[in-house]
Amino acid sequence: MTTDSTDTVFGMEQVRRARFAVAAVFTVHGAVTGSFATRVPWIQDHAGVSAGQLGLALAFPAIGASLAMPLAGAISHRFGARTALRGLLALWTLALILPAMAPNLLTLCAALFMYGASAGMSDVAMNALGVEVENRLDKSIMSGLHGMWSVGALIGSAAGTVAAHLGADARLHHTLAALVLTVLGLIACQGVLDLHSQPDEEPPPRFALPPKSALIIGAVGFCAVFAEGASLDWSAVYLRDIMDTSAGLAAASTTAFALTMAVARIAGDKVVDRFGAVRTVRVGGVLATVGGVLVVASPNAPLAMCGFGLLGLGVAVVVPLAFAAAGRSGPNPSQAIAGVATITYTSGLIAPSAIGSLAEATSLVVSFGLVTVLAFGLVLGAGVLRAGDRKAVSSSDAGAPSTAAAEPRP
User: Fold this and answer.
1) How far apart are CA 390 and CA 282, in angstroms?
2) pLDDT (tens digit, 9 = 90+) per residue, 178-221?
3) d(CA 389, CA 383)
4) What is the DSSP letter of 300?
5) From 409's CA, which of 30, 45, 71, 124 has a CA 20 to 30 Å away?
6) How far apart are CA 216 and CA 17, in angstroms?
7) Of 389, 401, 395, 396, which Cα lies nearest the Cα of 134?
8) CA pair distance 19, 7, nearest whole angstrom
9) Both ends of the chain: CA-CA distance in Å?
């Protein structure tokens, strides 16, 4: 039985309810991203920026997230996990209003920096609570939680598509969406575990380099996110330019990839519980590598689309498992999760531009050759997730009582 520092007992029924509450938080978080992404063209026109200037501005969310993520652990330590998540999630949902209000490049960059900073801090807080609930349930839930984030992103993008089709002003659209999502987020946060640090526990530093364990785990996440970002942003272009398909079929490949990712994440927990994190990621790496080979070597569009589907299927559960492993890799889960999140955010930032630069110097086929090599890196690096693999731990400690959830997390 586990307790927090105030000796409050968390029964299994409360932990199960907390699982659904955290899932709702992930959905709200994803809905903000989906809402923003669909209105980027409106925001570009309103701010009066060129395509190159927009590309510069869109780097600021990742910069803000990377700089702010280490603060999440200190905030949770001071205020407790529930209060911290409630505040950080509200900052994130309300930050949706800022980009559409920006009248020029400078204010857009500042708005997107704040947008990314609030996204990153709430991301770390909700993943830390997700890992805690997973520990207490003693079964995999992180893949499903990230699947719910994808569902939220799809819901937000669907609503944004309708708003764009109706010609709605994004300032009004995002203000209404932010208010609705803030209320839903606050309601969801009521059900998460109210964890607090021990009275004699040292507060984590506000800014610190990620621990070595997080760097190693983050390298695996880097490979997966690079393949994901490259496929999402360049699959349609690849099919149009290399396979000479119609614009509609090319766009469908991107949608199919995103749906494959969402479905695989939602279903991934059962696979992880049965086979363990290491074996799941290793097999996923094989599937992603085969997918990359199909994309590079395919003589026709259907096979290339199958390749992109295999890439999505293969990398889908890697990031959730990387967060789970980071949360169990040392005495400060929030700091480790922040380190892994920073690395994966960086990968997502550089992947689209790296693919484009390499394609300009060589070809898109060569660019996806690099993606294939990184996908194979999942096969080689899957073993670093063993520290967070409950199946491996239980098999190596046969008969020993599990202490994975014995220490409360800040």
Assistant:
1) 16
2) 999 999 999 999 999 888 766 656 666 555 566 777 888 999 99
3) 10
4) S
5) 30
6) 33
7) 389
8) 21
9) 17
Kindly report the pTM of this predicted structure: 0.77
Asked if 273 and 140 touch (Cβ cutoff 8 Å), the reply is yes
Query: CA-CA distances (angstroms) from residue 133 to 141, 210, 232?
Result: 8, 23, 30
One-letter amino acid for residue 292 of the chain: G
The CA radius of gyration of the chain, in Å to the nearest whole number, is 21
- DSSP track, 57-107: HTTHHHHHHHHHTTHHHHHHHHH-HHHHHHHHHHHHHHHTHHHHH--SHHH
Using alpha carbons, list the distances in angstroms from residue 200 to 197, 203, 302, 303, 387. Answer: 8, 9, 60, 59, 27
> What does the DSSP assignment read for 176-188?
HHHHHHHHHHHHH
Identity of residue 9: V
Rounded Cα distance, 85 and 194, in Å: 10
| Other CB atoms within 10 A of residue 191 CB | 18
